[in-house]
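Box 3.1 A note on notation
Throughout this textbook, protein chains are presented in two layers. The first layer is the amino acid sequence; the second is a token string describing backbone geometry. Keep the layers aligned when reading.
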Amino acid sequence: MTAVTLTIDGKLVTARADETILQAARANGIPIPTLCHVDGLSAHGGCRLCLVEAGPGGRLQPACVIKVAEGQDVRTDTAKLREYRKLILELLFAEGNHVCAVCVANGNCELQDAAAAAGMDHLTLDYTHPRREVDLSHDRFGVDHNRCILCTRCVRACDELEGAHTWDMSGRGANSKVITDLNQPWGESATCTSCGKCFMACPTGAIFRKGATVAEMDHGRAKLDFLITARGRKQWNV
């Protein structure tokens, strides 16, 4: 595979031509925040938290889907980017019902961690307070649409790791939400295998294990990382 040389935050790095800016940056110890991205699953580019300045005029581009290029000059941490990322996080909090103090994922939530890292201690936007339901029809898990950020990680984990494709997206704009099968209650799904991969992939408290109380839920990401690695190496018998 052809190698390319580019500059990231003033550091000269080498990467494979088929790698993304995000992959090249992380391989060289340069952090770029993400929410919808999971290594080993297909890139989605939906949350836009990984925006970087790349190309002529410092064009804003999502690092998780844009490929590296020879001579590329990339900046990952500028005042402009910090402002945009903070605004993205504010929008996510404002358009949902995220009450960290009473969430099962409090202290173990990627949205919460990203907000803290961005220095977001309050909102400058008005809360929309949408009316969203909680589905508790499944025997082992529940889904709280109030905490969902529409990252589609559950959709991709179910499709690409389990092969069930129970989860999908429905609606547009403010009416968008994740659904099971043809918008049936999760507990009535004919395709769900109850494997828990969607739960492990969820970055917030949107998909939770029944019985979990405030701040005690662990998503088990280490197990998901193992499954993704095993899939790539074809180690299904491990």
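The longest helix spans residues 79-95. The CA atoms of residues 93 and 105 lie 15 Å apart.
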